[in-house]
Amino acid sequence: MNYETQLAGDVPAHVFGEEQPRPRRRGLMIGAAIAILLIAAAAWAILHGKGGEPAAAVEQAPVVTVIVPGQSMVEQTVSGTGSLAARVEMPVGVVGEGGEVRRVLVQPGDWVRAGQVLAVIERSVQSEQIRSLAAQVEVARADAKLAQAQLDRAKALVKRGFISQADIDQRTATRDAANARVNVAAAQLAEQRARTGRLDIRAPGAGLVLTRDVEPGQIVGSGSGVLFRMARDGAMEMLAQVSEGDLARLRPGNQATVTPVGSTERIAGRIWQVSPVVDPQTRQGIARIAIPYNRAIRPGGFASATIVSGAATAPMLPESAVQTDAKGHYVYIVDGRNQAVRRDVEIGQVSDKGVAITSGLTGTEHVVLSAGAFLAPGQKVRPEVRKAG
User: Fold this and answer.
1) Axis crossing angle, helix 124-158 with helix 165-197, rounded to the nearest 10
2) What is the pLDDT of residue 168?
3) CusB-like beta-barrel domain: from which residue to which, for each copy (predicted)?
4) Interatomic CA distance for residues 199 and 197, integer angstroms
5) φ, ψ at 8 (rounded to 5°)
């Protein structure tokens, strides 16, 4: 036996690449299989969330803000449109004999008091007549004074027997006639002064001048028509046209808000009269709304009105929560599985407080606040609840 043969016989067989025993090799294979299963299980856990949902899907679900609206007290309102007018309009014309207009003292938009002169009429002839009548009064008074003096002298002489009682009676009658002529002359003078005073065009009451249809130099008389139009005390009104059904819900005293066309002014008023009749063609009636004076109110203009006809309870939502499409108004609510669900609703009063929901919600739902336009029915979401109000 040479040296190489002896060395090969002393070294173990596995050093030269010979196979290991079969039981040990099987154990290594089982361990590798278990490791692979553990890795697969870990990967599945990473890819799937709780309840069998993919974790990636949960992370990708959009976050939406929801509210529980509950029930709120909501005013029931009626809308109407119509024209503006003076509540009590006062036409002003010539009440005297008329003449040439010398001065016009007011303009539309001026406030005047009762009896204030609006226009002055030329009165030179009337002034001379007044002077003549005043002189006649003085003549009559002088005659009355003379008659009284003659009567006094006669009474002094009757005691001496120079004048009879018949003369006294005659002189007394003369004195009384003279006094009567004084009264007649004074009455004629007062009448002429009154006629002259009626030449001026005066305000029949306190209020606001609306129109002026007279100019200096114009000849006016009893047939000249209306020269000024006034609103008594400046009080205005709106003649709101409302439907037949809405008219039945209105009562005098109902509050209203009037907004003139072209203005942002919101003027508070109250209904003071509800029309007892309905137009058979338009099926509308008139609600007359009394409103105070405001620069934005121009009689003859157009306005819209919102009239409070009552109150009720209903869910109140922000306008951002209510969506609209061809089918009507709707909102999205989040159900117990965090899925978006479309809910058709009917809306009522829209105000600064929000939109009143008259049908479709009870107020206990979780309503999507503002992301409804980007959701689809059945879509998974992650809701965050915000307190209503």
Assistant:
1) 160
2) 80
3) 240-308
4) 5
5) -65, -30
